[in-house]
Amino acid sequence: MLERIRLFLAKLDAQPQQEAPVDFATALGALMVEVMRADNEIAPDELKMITQLLQQHCQLSAHSSDLIFSKAQQLVDEAIDLHRFVKVVNDNTSEEARIEVIELLWMVAFADGKLDPQEDYTVRKLAGLMYVSHGDFIAAKLNVKGILGLPD
To answer: Co-chaperone DjlA N-terminal domain: from which residue to which, for each copy (predicted)?
Structure first.
């Protein structure tokens, strides 16, 4: 009996664990969730901002954006790192579109009216992983502050 259990466990270890592919909207949602969670506070304005941005930029219905948001939260909970999501975004966007993604991340970071240093760090880290230059990173931040009417 113990030998059969040992063989079963060995067989499980031998099988590579394949992660299910993630679509662009879910990957984008996961990056936004990571920014939202960076300061360990989840503000209602941040939740609302993420679902609105998913609707607007991924052409989703309100119901679909809620489902994508829930799935993104679950995937972030289970993820070891963010590279899986960043890769999907990088593979499906141009340099210009990645700058727009950084703007979306800034919109989530500023949604509650303040910028926590951990949110700033998270957006900065993601910008680096998406090969967005420091100048474009700063320009995106200033652009979003202007859109939202926040002081410099």
So the answer is: 26-141
The matching CATH number, chosen from 3.60.40.10, 3.40.800.20, 1.10.3680.10, 1.10.357.10, for 23-148 is 1.10.3680.10
Query: pLDDT tens digit string along 35-45?
Result: 999 999 888 99
Hey, where are the domains in the chain?
23-148
CA 144 to chain centre: 17
pLDDT tens for residues 16-63?
555 668 899 999 999 999 999 999 988 899 999 999 999 999 998 999
Q: Are 106 and 50 in contact (CB under 8 A)?
A: no
